[in-house]
Amino acid sequence: MTHLPLGGFIGKDTKGQKGLSTLRKLHLTFVILSGIMYAYKGLQLVLGLFLAYETRSQKVKQINDSRLVAMATYNVVVLCMITAPVMLVVGDQQNAAFVFVSLAVIFCCFLSMALIFVPKLLFIMKHAHDPREKGEDEKFMQEQEKEYAEIQKENDQLQKKLKEVRKFRLYLKFIRVRNIPCRKKSC
After folding, report:
1. Secondary structure class of 3 (helix, strand, coil)
2. What dihedral do alpha carbons 91, 97, 100, 103 form, nearest 10°?
3. 9: which strand partners?
4. pLDDT tens track for 15-42
5. Rg (Cα) of the chain, in Å, rounded?
6. Which residues contact 116 (CB under 8 A, 6 or more apart)?
7. Nearest to 64 by CA among 129, 123, 134
8. What is the pLDDT of residues 101-141, one digit of tens each?
9. Which of 79, 101, 78, 71 is nearest to 89 (CA)?
10. Are 111 and 75 in contact (CB under 8 A)?
C-alpha cells in the first residue's frame, strides 16, 4: 500500500484507478478541444488583420477606418496572448480564473469599441454644423441635378427618334402590303 499526503491509502483499488484514468482522458480531451478552439480563434484574428490590411488604401472617408480595425484586432491578439497563458496557470483556482477572464473580455470589448466608434463620434461632433460640408453637398446635388437634366434631355431626343423610326417602319409595312411605290427619298 502507498501512503497519500492527505492520510489516504491506495491499495488494490480498481475503482480509484478507473476514475483516475477517466479524469486523465477528460483532461486530455479538454486540452485538445481548447487547442482547436484557440487555433480557430487565431485563424479568425489573422483573417481580420488580413481584411484590415487589404482595405487600408480605401479613399472613401466614411469607410476608411481600416487602421482602427487593425488596432482593435491587434488589441484582441495581445489580450489573447496574455489571457491564454495566465488561464493555464490559474486554471485550478476557479474564482481567480473567472475574474481574470471576465475582466479581459470586458476590457477587450470596451477598447475595441472605443477604437472604432470614438473617432467617428468625434468627427460627427466636430463637423455637425460645418458649412463647408453643406456647400460640398449642395454642389454635389447641383451637379447631379444638372447631369440628370442632360440625361433626361438626351432621353427625350432619343424617344422622338425612336417614334419616327417606328412610324417609318409602319409606313414601309403599309407600302409593301399594298404594293404602292415609295414616295420618300429614304426608301
Report:
1. strand
2. 130
3. 3
4. 556 666 777 777 788 888 888 998 998 8
5. 37
6. 65, 68, 69, 72
7. 123
8. 899 999 999 998 998 888 888 888 887 766 555 666 678 88
9. 101
10. yes
Q: Contact, 9 vs 1, CB < 8 A?
A: yes
Q: For residue 171, what is its C-alpha cell?
A: 409606313
Q: Is the pTM of this model over 0.85?
A: no
3 state DSSP class of 10: strand
Report the alpha-carbon distance of residue 75 to residue 82 in Å, rounded.
11
- Whether the CB-CB separation of 1 and 11 falls below 8 Å is answered with yes
CB-neighbour burial class of residue 73 (10 A; exposed 0-12, middle 13-18, buried 19+): buried
Would you state the cell numbers that stand for residue 142, as one nine-digit string?
447641383
Q: How far apart are alpha carbons 118 and 56 in whole angstroms? A: 19
| N residues, the chain | 187
Residue 112: which of 59, 56, 52 has the closest Cα? 52
